[in-house]
Amino acid sequence: MYSSFQLAIKYINYNFTASNGKGHGIHSPFVFDLVVQVLNDQTKNPAYKEIEVQRNLLLGNETIIEVEDFGAGSVKGLKKHRVVQQIAAGSLKKPKYAQLLYRLVTYFQPKQIIELGTSLGITTAYLAKAKQDAQVITMEGSAAIASLAEDVFKKLQLQNIHLVTGNFDETLQATINQLSTINFAFVDGNHRKEPTLNYFHQLLEKSNESTIMVFDDIHWSKEMEEAWETIKQHSSVTLTIDLFFIGLVFLRKEQKEKEHFVIRF
């Protein structure tokens, strides 16, 4: 994991070198439309407020829970006592990016969505609210955290979410095997190179040319940057968009040559 200082330097460099976030100079019609209609959409959807109420409740929740740790550098079976508000502060995707996920789902209208890394359920809620007739499968390693996420889903009256609990190494392949296709995937799991690439290859098994994959924290560490570069070069990937904190991956066969964009967001 990069230090806060290292990450800040990388972010400053990204802001200086990234393409203008207004779409100027982007010659791909597909990417230009995506920038204008999705990235730059400032509409305050009522769903945002509903979900952010739940985020604020989690940020104020002082309950202590016992959490299984399956993340980078964890020891199998290790459990830690953690305060819910600390988990919320450290792991929930900021509104700017969670709401971008909502707009991406609204724009592309995927029918089958999979999320690796439920956490406390805020990004899951955004994905599910964006298309309530889609099936959202979300996966969380910790049973205690999954239980809190389910409480969020109930409060928001979301009926289109199926939550799978357990270590991704043991649950992901079986879950993917049950699906006919994956239209949209948000990957926010174990932030190491090998697991991230394993998730990518497993998701590819049920992907097609219209599938969109979103990878979280692509510049979080040297390993994650290496994983991102490997994904970009995969033969199935024809287009990527680097937004620094997340990366978008497209498998569009109609695009004859690979294109990789770094866009200010």
Describe the fold and architecture:
The chain is an alpha/beta fold. The protein has 10 helices and 10 strands. The strands form 2 sheets. It has an 8-stranded mixed sheet, with helices on both faces. Strands 1-2 form a two-stranded antiparallel sheet. Helix 5 (95-108) packs parallel to helix 6 and helix 9 runs parallel beside helix 10 (222-233). The longest helix has 14 residues, at 4-17. The protein is globular, with a radius of gyration of 18 Å.
Low-confidence stretches: 73-77
Q: If strands are numbered along the chain, what order do they take across the biggest sheet?
A: 5-4-3-6-7-9-8-10
What is the number of strand segments? Answer: 10
Query: What integer is the average pLDDT?
Result: 93
| Helix run count | 10
Helix content: 40-55%
Summary tags:
265 residues; eight-stranded mixed beta sheet; two-stranded antiparallel sheet; 10 strands; 18% strand
How would you summarize the topology of this molecule?
Elements: H1 4-17, H2 29-39, H3 46-59, E1 64-68, E2 79-83, H4 84-91, H5 95-108, E3 112-116, H6 122-130, E4 135-140, H7 143-155, E5 161-165, H8 168-177, E6 184-187, H9 193-204, E7 212-216, H10 222-233, E8 239-242, E9 246-250, E10 259-262
Helix pairs in contact: 3-6, 5-6, 8-9, 9-10
Give a quick summary of the entry.
With 265 residues, the chain is α/β, with parallel strands linked by helices. The protein has ten helices and ten strands. The strands form two sheets. It has an eight-stranded mixed β-sheet, sandwiched between helices.
